[in-house]
Amino acid sequence: MIIQKIFNNNAIVAKESDKHEFVVMGRGIGFKKNVGEKVEENLIEKTFILKQKDASEKFKLLLEDIPAEHVSICYDIIEYAKNILGVELNDYIYVTLTDHISNVLKMFDEGFNTPNILIWEIKKFYPKEFRVGLKALEFIENETSKKLPEDEAGNIALHLINAQGKNNSSKVEDVVHQTKMVQDILNIVKYTYNISLDEKSISYERFVTHLRFFFQRMDNVEKAENRENEDDFLLKQVKEKYKEAYKCMLKIEKYLEKKLSDEEQLYLTIHIQRVTQR
């Protein structure tokens, strides 16, 4: 393993034979070292292997400006998140979350806190990610002795939610927008039926989960012809059986300003029927 670049005493870029370059961190791993020398592998504490080239290059640029301590904290948060959430996270999470947390810590030192206006929705719609965010605050406090507000757990959760998407160009702002849309749709259902929804029910959880993934699929216009025919047949039956739920679905379609496929109309109608039944 050969040193390719030295950021500081504790962070370097290394390469092993013809494999990808990767960032290596460890106390004193770059101290009095030169490019081309072998890495003292016993000093390695954390290894970042970013397969996406663009994410890797941006991460290296980040390392030139951000304290190694902040990078190390984010590494631990991301690894913890992967284990708890059980999902793949996009490589860009190492860039976006590290940059975000480092900025938050700097602002904290200057006496500024950034409120999260969606904290309530995040707690309700993304409970797992929010719990990881709360644990992240513990990591940060243990390492820096800085106690960040609960709102920051919501901000961290947004980054984790965003990193679960396959589209690298998606932004945290998109997740914020989608979260608001989920809330709007739930309100349409509540006002149409003039009821409060049981947020602890399985039907409610399934409905919210369906909406979350629905927004990720909205731009996918590919349709299988045989599936469309099947959905059209089922939709006609559901439309007749669950008339009020179907009307509510049409209100949601109007709100979205988008013509939904038969498949989406079908599943939305069924979810509305289930979530409004006691």
From TrEMBL:
Coiled coil: none
Keywords, alphabetical: Repeat
GO MF terms held by the record: RNA binding
InterPro entries in the record: BglG_antiterminators (IPR050661), CAT_RNA-bd_dom (IPR004341), CAT_RNA-bd_dom_sf (IPR036650), PRD (IPR011608), PRD_sf (IPR036634)
GO BP: any one term: regulation of DNA-templated transcription
Xref: PROSITE patterns: PRD_2
Pfam families, sorted: CAT_RBD (PF03123), PRD (PF00874)
Residue span, PRD domain: 65-170, 173-278
Name this polypeptide is given: Transcriptional antiterminator, BglG family
